[in-house]
Amino acid sequence: MAFDLHMALVILAAAVVTFATRIGGYILITRMKSIPPRMEAALNAVPAAVLTTLVAPAFFIGGWESKLALIVALFVGLRVSHTWMLVAAWIVVMIWRHTIGL
């Protein structure tokens, strides 16, 4: 495999842009005396948006064991800690795969 200068420059540019957006947000927030309500609302919505982008494809594209595990994780997560939620979902997937099959 030969060294591709174009690909290396694309990777470097992506790294610089990623770093700039992350450090830019930090610098912007630290320079503000107070966070405006609309910005605070947007920042509060980020975890739900990220969770949705991770869970929705797994639910709609994954098999039945994924769907069942996510539903179990939802209900367990409403009652106990996140660690137990992950353990419960993992157990559901393992039982499904070992008893019903892939």
- Kindly report how far apart the N and C termini lie: 36 Å
**What structural class should be given to the helix and strand makeup?**
mainly alpha
The largest sheet, given as strand count, sense and whether it forms a barrel, is: none
Number of strands: 0
Percent of residues in helical segments? Answer: over 70%
- pLDDT < 50 runs, ≥5 residues: none
Q: What is the overall silhouette?
A: flat
Pattern of helices and strands? HHHH
Arithmetic mean pLDDT: 89
- Proportion in β-strands: under 5%
How many helical stretches? 4
Radius of gyration over all CA atoms, rounded: 21 Å
Short description:
The chain has 102 residues and is mainly α. The chain has helices at 5-31, 37-61, 64-79, 82-99.
Describe it.
There is one protein chain. The chain has 102 residues and is mainly α. The protein has a domain at 1-31. Helices cover 84% and strands 0% of the residues. It contains four helices and no strands. The protein is flat, with a radius of gyration of 21 Å. The two termini are 36 Å apart. The relative contact order is 0.06. The mean pLDDT is 89.
